[in-house]
Amino acid sequence: MCLAVPGQVESLFVENDTPMGRVNFGGVIKEVCMIYLPEITVGDYVIVHVGFAINQIDEESAQATLESFAELGLLDEEIEELRASGDEA
């Protein structure tokens, strides 16, 4: 399954002229393209889908979404897919 998952931005950088960030998904850190959200700052929460931050979200909504995923049994599956993709920072 491939859900859009909320995570917290831990750092921002530019790679090959592309805005990027390191995003924390429950302890799994992934590099994410930030090209669609240039106003994002460290500490913000974003929704990430297939490696792209596609929307900013507040912390309360992010936590509620993660809680719902966990209750539905979807969060563990998504976190495992993130871990398995192998590009943890």
For the terminal residues, how far apart are their CA atoms?
23 Å
| Annotation field: number of helices | 2
Integer average pLDDT? 85
Q: Provide the number of structural domains.
A: 1
Characterize the overall form.
globular
The structure class reads alpha+beta
Radius of gyration: 12 Å
- Main-sheet strand order equals 3-2-1-4-5
Largest sheet features: 5 strands, antiparallel
Indicate the percent of residues in helices: 25-40%
The stretches of 5 or more residues where confidence is low (pLDDT under 50) are: none
Number of strands: 5
CATH architecture, please? Roll
CATH topology: SH3 type barrels
Q: Regarding quaternary structure, how should these chains be classified?
A: single chain
Tell me briefly what this model is.
The protein is an alpha+beta fold. The chain has one domain: SH3 type barrels. The protein contains two helices and five strands; from the N terminus they run βββββαα.
Kindly describe this structure.
The chain contains two helices and five strands, in the order βββββαα. By secondary structure, it is of the alpha+beta class. The mean pLDDT is 85. It has a single domain (5-80), classed as SH3 type barrels (Roll). It has a five-stranded antiparallel sheet with strand order 3-2-1-4-5.
